[in-house]
């Protein structure tokens, strides 16, 4: 997801008031350009307009909450795979035991 998609509501609200957007370095908070000092903005280095356009088109960094959610999903998938492996191991052990018993009976 690109920044322009992730922050569409903030960008729209700021632009509808006639302001350019700025992104504060801390927490990558999207604000109106008039609401922050240039030295606190990620667009400070070089040309603001060019940097802003590059930021719009770049991939958005995930938030802590998004990362936590993704981690929980991965943990759930891991636990499900572990359960399936344990079940498969049980069936395999049972099959081996049956084969050994059949071999001993011959």
Task: Write structural notes for this entry.
The protein is mostly helical and about 110 residues long. It is built from 4 helices and 2 strands, in the order H-H-E-E-H-H. It has a two-stranded antiparallel sheet with strand order 1-2. Strand 1 (about 20-25) and strand 2 (about 30) form a beta hairpin.
Summarize the helices and strands and which ones pair or pack.
Blueprint (H helix, E strand, L loop, with lengths): L2 H4 L1 H9 L4 E4 L4 E4 L15 H10 L6 H42 L1
Antiparallel strand pairs: 1-2
Mean pLDDT: 91
What is the gyration radius calculated from CA atoms? 27 Å
Query: What share of residues are in beta strands?
Result: 5-15%
Largest sheet report = 2 strands, antiparallel
The sequence of SSEs as H and E is: HHEEHH
Structural class by SSE content: mainly alpha
N-to-C CA distance: 64 Å
Describe the global form: rod-shaped
**Relative helix content:** 55-70%
User: Could you tell me the number of beta strands?
Assistant: 2
Enumerate the strands of the largest sheet in spatial order, edge to edge or round the barrel.
1-2
Low-confidence stretches are: none
How many helices in DSSP terms? Answer: 4
Oligomer: single chain
Give a nutshell description of this structure.
The chain is 61% helix and 8% strand. Strands 1-2 form a two-stranded antiparallel sheet. The relative contact order is 0.10.
Brief descriptors of the model:
106 residues; mainly alpha; two-stranded antiparallel sheet; 61% helix
């Amino acid at each position: 997801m690109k920044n322009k998609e992730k922050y569409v509501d903030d960008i729209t609200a700021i632009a509808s008031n006639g302001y350019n957007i700025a992104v504060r370095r801390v927490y990558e908070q999207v604000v109106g350009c008039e609401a922050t000092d240039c030295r606190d903005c990620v667009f400070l280095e070089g040309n603001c307009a060019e940097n802003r356009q590059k930021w719009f088109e770049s991939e958005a960094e995930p938030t802590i909450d998004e990362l936590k959610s993704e981690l929980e999903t991965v943990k759930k998938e891991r636990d499900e795979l572990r359960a399936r492996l344990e079940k498969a191991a049980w069936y395999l052990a049972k099959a081996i035991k049956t084969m050994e018993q059949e071999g001993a009976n011959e």
